[in-house]
Amino acid sequence: MPIDNSRVRNFSPELSTGCLNGVSQSANPSTIVKVAVPAPLFQCFDYAFDSGQPPPPGARVRVPFGRRRLVGIVTGHGDPAGDRRLRAIESVVDDQPLFDEGDRDLIEWTARYFAAPIGEVYSLAMPVPLRAGAPARWEPPWLWARVDESGDGSPRLGSRQRAAIDALGGGPMLEAPLREASGLDRRGLERLEALQLIRRVGAEGERVAAPVSLPTLTDEQAAALEQLGARLEGFHATLIDGVTGSGKTEVYLRAARRVLDQGRQCLILVPEIGLVGGMVERVRARLGVEPCVLHSALADGERAQLWLSARAGHPDVVIATRSGVFVPLPRLGLIIVDEEHDASYKQEDGCRYSARAVAIWRARQRRVPILLGSATPSLESLHLVETGSVLRIGLSSRAGGAALPRVRLLDVRAQQLDHGLSFESQSRIEAHLQAGGQVLVFLNRRGYAPAVLCHTCGWVADCSRCDAHLTLHRARNRLCCHHCGLEAAPPERCPDCGDRQFTGIGAGTERLEHALVRRFAGHPVLRIDRDTTRRVGELDARIARAESGEARILIGTQMLAKGHNFPNLSLVVVVDADQGLFSADFRAAERMAQGIFQVGGRAGRAERAGEVLIQTHHPDHPLLQQLVRGDYGGFARMALAERREAGMPPARQFVMLRAEGQTADAVMRWLGEAAQLGRGLFDAAVEIWDPVSAPMARRAGRHRGQLLLECDRRAPLQSGLSAWIERIGQLRESRKLRWSLDVDPQSML
């Protein structure tokens, strides 16, 4: 979280030395124990322990911290305290380390590299119950089996209960896949157990998924796997750069199979929860194991048990989102980062770490291979390929002989648009629907209209807390700010002129849905965005409808742009391709290109020929011309050359200091003082810019500013960060502001 020093104002100036102010409970302690506590502070703290063997590094302890009691992690021991008066550890939670030496090295490297509070990184690496001090007891999973193997004689059951009984007809199942297959929760299964219809059996060493017959590899896939064969021992970083539909996942999992056969574990990272289900099915089918799944949508207790099972070395495969990069795995043999380009791998609040960077370091540390996969690799990964740090393996053809979709630019200048759609786009949608195909309309902007204005005087509905317009959500009849969450009812009259003539400007996914339902009546329309998938399980349900072909017209944001397979999809229409061409963020063009390539790649994967239409007001733009040619590699080379010429990442290294406060003057003054301190601390090779207002200067009622540090090399930047953080934390205004440091920022906004 952003650093808010008002949270620690009760502590003495001795904080910087690691000592806490307070009455000692042990005047002459025999041992000093260093503890990382979950607070926005950048050092560990010394506590006294004099009641026997001190807790080992990596164990949890309860400690007094100001007026609070916190659960921290022991990071080491010090010399006897002598005359120092220290507060004592209140209790020891773990007799044995929760984190082994390798796990601690990973967490501490993350804290150093990303200039994050060490205690908050440890907290991030644990499930919620363990952060609170819950016992680290792992309960081995069990299998559920049918009592009456014939399935006869069962009492009258509900549909979900019957589904559970039927699912167990093929043999015992672990609880997670049984719940998934039936829709029952733990209580529902226990009711069936009470009816003596199902029972629990031991699951030690069980593998409950049976691999299907493996598909024949294409020549490119076979060659890629052969190249990987020699790189599955020791640390090797490999980029699998394959067009959409080329079978990258098949190559990953064949490599994982070899690692599992050696008795080692595999960690698979995916960028979003919505991609977990598809990866689980592929792992079951190809590897014949039931993977352990870790993500934030799980209940806290369930997530803790799965985390502990991974730590115990039970699952062969762990599939996880971003924070899963820290999960302890004693038999780790391979790390796979799927869709490695995805911005979701960078956490944008709290501890601002990149899971991709942490995964690479972890692979190096543990001397295991890592595979990075994408159809649109990040420029950072391609830069590593250029420097020789990463080997690139290319897959240029789709598996199964499917052709890449044909891409066309639609010049919509001076054309009348129907809720954002051109006449030609509508005509092609109708043609594909009549031919039995499925259509995806892509717009990375939710809501009905991104702005509402008075048609009479031009008044615009703006957020009172942000420098942003309010978005109209017509179904809920609300004006919403997508930055701070403010909601309000649309005004009945214009506050400036009193007229009632309001107009929605622009189009969002809700408006597209309204237009397409009206225009193509009789063809089921399905919208998939954040607004339609808030309920638990709704995203999976909608993706299933899309993949089955039940929904003929799909409307979606970036949630649909990656990782999904829609066999019937034949047409993709990109409604507003110009959003990323003129952004203040230098990464916007890269993300736009990745998004369009990814969503376009959903089309034409089976026997149907694919077509991609890109609506634009700038058809001659070089970036869009690269997209038409289907040449992401050409775009990437052009973008890398532009970055080098402009002195932008990955050619140069960036660190961003951000601050928020009640007034713009206070923010800019504090950033100016921080810049002065930095110029006296950092090497001359580090360039420190003057502070500026953020592109969105006000958000959630707070004024925002930022300060950029850059250097050609990493070392000069990293060497000065710790001292700089300590010094700026001592500035008089630091306690009155929220501030954060972002190493390798992914957004300049």
Characterize the structure shown.
This protein is of the alpha/beta class. The chain folds into five domains: 3-131, GIY-YIG endonuclease (3-Layer(aba) Sandwich), CATH 3.40.1440; 142-202; 219-400, Rossmann fold; 402-449 and 506-643, Rossmann fold, CATH 3.40.50; 653-743, Alpha-Beta Plaits. The protein has a seven-stranded parallel β-sheet, with helices on both faces. Strands 1, 28, 29, 30, 31 and 32 form a six-stranded antiparallel β-sheet that branches. Strands 17-27-26-18-25-24 form a six-stranded parallel β-sheet, with helices on both faces.
CATH topology annotation of the largest domain: Rossmann fold
Approximately how much helix is present in the residues?
A: 25-40%
- CATH homologous superfamily caption of the largest domain: P-loop containing nucleotide triphosphate hydrolases
Overall outline? globular
Beta strand %: 15-25%
Count of discrete domains: 5
Strand arrangement across the biggest beta sheet: 12-13-11-14-15-10-16
Helices, by number, come to: 20
